[in-house]
Design a protein that fits this description.
The chain has eleven helices and 14 strands. It has 309 residues and is of the alpha/beta class. Helix 1 (2-10) packs across helix 2. The longest helix has 27 residues, at 54-80.
């Protein structure tokens, strides 16, 4: 399968043989044996390289998953034993990677120096779940997945807060009702959570009785927070990103009622060895999970906005 995937990637038997450090006849023999075992041709030679047959296209995703699983099994076994050279691959949302994982990774290196960590970062929960399902990483750290058949462990909770500059009229407050911000402009981020198929801010503002006005759109959460701190508009962000990675050069407001969601670790297989130890370590670092673990529906906006506290 590894030979097959290399030929597909390189679109050439010659280049694949060079990368695999085998002779081209030996590579061709292995591919023919594989095709015989599945009952038909997987590859076809073309004037400009090698392509997949109909059977090959159907076979490809399963072969990718199988090879990744074999690699994952080897490194998981070494990591479980704490062997020198063992590896643990962790997939996480960018906001989690920036705001929570640095402290956890530092503690891991002190306690488990023989097991190397590899971080894979993703902008959306959909991409995160998809890549973990495909075997890219041993475990994922992010919001609770929606349709996951493997183990899911709640290790904490993350609160989504609002960020405004020091000269904003609300800067002297610690909490705010969302409808009080109906006249504000917003800094929108491509990494914004999706709820019921819609960007979170659109979803939640609609229930508060208004549509958010966008000042600028950014790619990264940390950029959105910096923009908000400079006065471009209000930004939403996980609290740990603002306080842990961006600093205290802005005002952080909690929403009433608060916006919280579960922080979880999930995997395709039961967590064991190094993966289980990492989940335990993360659970001891992240905010405790016993608080509310979902985004509540905002209460309807009152006819008269409440007076500032």
């Amino acid at each position: 399968m590894e030979y097959f995937l290399t030929v597909v990637e390189e679109e050439s038997f010659t280049r694949a043989a060079e990368l695999l450090h085998v002779t081209q006849p030996a590579l061709s023999h292995q591919i023919k044996a594989l095709e015989k075992s599945v009952g038909g041709p997987l590859l076809e030679r073309r004037p400009r390289g090698v392509g997949l047959t109909v059977m090959g296209r159907a076979y490809l995703p399963h072969a990718e998953r199988a090879v990744r699983s074999a690699v994952q099994a080897r490194r998981a076994a070494r990591a479980a034993a704490g062997a020198e050279g063992g590896e643990l691959h962790i997939a996480a949302l960018h906001s989690v990677a920036v705001g929570i994982l640095p402290e956890v990774f530092a503690q891991w290196r002190r306690e488990h120096p023989g097991v190397a960590l590899h971080l894979h970062e993703y902008a959306t929960t959909e991409a995160l779940e998809d890549h973990v399902e495909r075997g890219v990483a041993d475990l994922a750290v992010g919001p609770e997945p929606t349709h996951w058949t493997g183990p899911v462990v709640r290790v904490g909770v993350e609160e989504i807060v609002l960020v405004v500059p020091f000269d904003d009229p609300l800067a002297g407050r610690t909490t705010v009702r969302l409808e009080e911000l109906s006249a504000h402009y917003w800094v929108r981020c491509a990494m914004e959570a999706v709820v019921e198929g819609r960007p979170f801010l659109d979803w939640v503002c609609e229930r508060a009785g208004f549509a958010p006005r966008t000042a600028v759109r950014t790619e990264h959460t940390s950029t959105a927070v910096r923009m908000a701190a400079a006065g471009v508009g209000v930004a939403t962000a996980p609290a740990h990103v603002v306080r842990g990675a961006v600093g205290e050069d802005c005002v952080v407001l909690s929403v009433t009622p608060p916006w919280r969601r579960a922080l979880t670790v999930y995997s395709r297989v039961e967590l064991s060895g190094a993966a289980a130890r990492f989940a335990e370590l993360l659970g001891g670092t992240a905010p405790p999970p016993e608080r509310p673990t979902c985004f509540p529906l905002p209460e309807p906006a009152p006819a008269t906005p409440p007076a500032a506290r």
